[in-house]
Amino acid sequence: MAESVDPGDVVAEGAGPPSRRRLLGWGGAGLALGAVAAGGTVAAVRPGGGSEPAADSGAAVPFHGEHQAGIATAVQDRLHFAAFDVTTRDRAELVALLKEWTRAAERMTAGHAVGEGAYGGLAEAPPDDTGEALGLKPSRLTLTVGFGPSLFTKGRFGLEDRRPDALTDLPKFPGDNLEAARSGGDLCVQACADDPQVAVHAIRNLARIGMGRTAIRWSQLGFGKTSSTTPGAQTPRNMMGFKDGTRNISGDDTAALDRHVWVGAKDDAGWMTGGSYLVARRIRMHIETWDRAPLQEQEDIFGRDKGEGAPVGRAKERDEPFLKAMLPTAHVRLAHPDSNGGATILRRGYSFTDGTDGLGRLDAGLFFIAYQRDVRKGFIPVQRGLAAHDALNEYIQHVGSAVFAVPPGVRDKDDWWGRTLFS
Amino acid sequence: MRPVRSSVVTAVAAVAALTAVTGCAEKSDGKGDGAVQVVAKDDSCEVSKTKLPAGHVELAVENKGSKVTEVYVLFPDDRIVTERENIGPGTKANITAEMKAGSYEVACKPGMKGKGIRRKIEVTGGAAAKRSPEMDRAVAGYRTYVQAQADETLPKVKVFTEAVAAGDIEAAKKAYAESRIGWERTEPVAESFGDIDPKVDVREDGLEAGQKWTGWHRLEKALWQDKKLGAEEKALAPVLYKDLADWQNRVGRADITPTSMANGAKELLDEVATGKVTGEEERYSHTDLVDFKANVEGAEQSYQLLKPIASKNDAALTASLDKRFAALNTLLDKYRADRNAYDFTSYEKVGKADRKELSDAVNALAEPLSKLAAAVTK
């Protein structure tokens, strides 16, 4: 990868040639990405007027910043999400790991190979980098780290007093069928990229660096982003064929992000300032029965029409929904902030299809990811309403669940993931 | 040991005497420096020349002692260049070898026992890689270990194969896992011969078209799954013994280098990571944890021998390896009551979560272990 990347592709906030900045989406200039709907492909507009798919442009997203990339960043096409157990009991080893991860993440998000690269080293030793991303562009790779509640358990790393109240354990919701092997974790890394191989490469190398200190607990691949943080782009469809998340928080809506996503300095944990809380849910869809449901039922369940995505009784997708026109059990109605006392989350979910389940059914669904300033004011109230009343529940089941505190961004080359927590 | 100079002087006299007596002059290249004369006695090993040109080398050995002897030419790491056994008192033997430049030792072993009486020789000319003495020590140590493992294993194999041949299922089951420990500890070396492994350690799904299934796992299936020993199994038992005796005879000639030791240690962990944590290896007997432990012990032996070199180049790596070997051994000890016995929990009783814990511990060790070769060669 190293030799194919022009360092000029990596543009820091407020630096670099202005012509490049347009490619970066949510750069310091606060430009809209200019992404246009083009047959479902996100395209980045070149200053010259020509456009090419963002995945082909292969731009790098700046790694350093006040917030971690991968939250408000324009949603990439692919996901590899991994939850880790920390196997070491030694706090210093954990800190060393986070520093090593940070340095590797800096390199990989810039499109460089890890360490001394994937070839050219000692013939007798395995290369530092696994090599499958050689020759591929940075593909807007973002790596976002989070800390699970179990990391703060008393007697582990001396962090019990630092657990934020907002990092609360999720209650058991009606209908949950959670598998332990797909839930929880001490650490998580969310890798998003336009090229799945780039995302997989990143997680694989971090897992390798972590061996002996961490072990993968579970992981999830995702495709076909199911929400957008770029209002100019077409709202993606989920596996049920519906547009969902039209009203998602826009990545450049600074006021909404500050209010609903970023942890503020006056919130309960100072070390989390600039961070966010992540909820991940593996939601299995009963695809086959859904596909047998009549169109009217499908549209009633969502509260939108299937073609345009317009709310019930409206003409266009982005028309203001009139909630009372929908069934009381409609998904959109129940998920809307107005039905939840204003609770708003930033969604970054992806579809998944993990083959079949041995009964001939597609093991597919939504890998739901939400970011919010406080889980108690974000995901929990929304999910309480959905779990109790959502008509969609007949066709879905939550089978995996995890919550993480996502610390603020890495400021510079000397900073590291989790510094504010551990120092 | 006698000073080299004196033995040379003695040997020169011996050359003249031997040449005159035996008429071996036709082996000479015409300059009077043909065969190296080796006079073996019960307490000495006289070598006529200690500096030789690289290329074809011939040793003319005469046993002037009272015991049967054997003579070896050894690399500094104790690997065998060439050897001749069973040289009776008063008899002679010729030994030949193609030798590259480097330091070697000639060893006479009166009574065919022990390390023998050693004489250093230098072969010059041509190019040869020089290895540090500490690397040679590490390799020699591992060579000794590998041979000892084979030597100790054969009697255990005998117990197992004799029980099978006698149709004694219970005794055979009891002896099975133990008979494999020495092999599992040194598997990469055993596998380096290519032909022995497919005969003794192949699993049914690893057979190639037309290949007859022989060896441990064939008998394992008969004992645990078929629960009977027929004529065919009884006949295969001595074949297994014979194949492993072949291993014992040849293991000393294996090509061992510091990097092959380091990567061999990693390979032993890879064996665990792919075959043992899944329970595939011992799918009938479920004695996987015995193999597991033996693989780890073999890897640790390689590592300990290389550690003096590696720790100078990468102290952080050896510190981490020390810790992770200890952690994996502690974890394995959970599965046996007695730390000195190889009586491990049946692997079918090891649950999914525990298997993952074992797998994580193996990965935790194998990943840094894969960096050992680099630390040794730096």
How would you characterize this protein structure?
- The complex is a heterodimer of chains A (423) and B (378).
- Chain A is built from 10 helices and 12 strands.
- Chain A is of the alpha+beta class and 423 residues long.
- In chain A, β2 and β3 form a beta hairpin.
- In chain A, 49% of the residues are buried.
- Chain B has 378 residues and is α+β, with helices and mostly antiparallel strands.
- Helices cover 52% and strands 15% of the residues of chain B.
- Chain B contains 12 helices and 9 strands.
- Chain B starts with a helix and ends with a helix.
- Residues 1-33 of chain B have low confidence and may be disordered.
Which secondary structure elements does this structure contain, and how are they paired or packed?
The complex is a heterodimer of chains A (423) and B (378).
Chain A: H1 18-21, E1 36-38, E2 41-45, E3 51-53, H2 54-57, E4 78-86, H3 91-109, E5 142-147, E6 187-193, H4 196-210, E7 214-225, H5 254-260, E8 276-285, H6 287-291, H7 295-302, H8 331-335, E9 346-347, E10 350-356, E11 362-372, H9 379-389, E12 396-406, H10 419-422
Antiparallel strand pairs in A: 1-2, 2-3, 4-6, 4-7, 5-6, 7-10, 8-11, 8-12, 9-11, 10-11
Helix pairs in contact in A: 3-4
Chain B: H1 4-22, E1 36-40, E2 45-47, E3 51-53, E4 55-63, E5 69-74, E6 80-87, E7 92-99, E8 102-108, E9 117-124, H2 133-165, H3 169-185, H4 187-191, H5 197-200, H6 216-226, H7 231-250, H8 258-276, H9 288-313, H10 315-333, H11 352-369, H12 372-377
Parallel strand pairs in B: 1-4, 3-9
Antiparallel strand pairs in B: 1-2, 4-7, 5-6, 5-8, 8-9
Helix pairs in contact in B: 2-3, 2-7, 2-9, 3-6, 3-9, 6-7, 8-9, 8-11, 9-10, 10-11
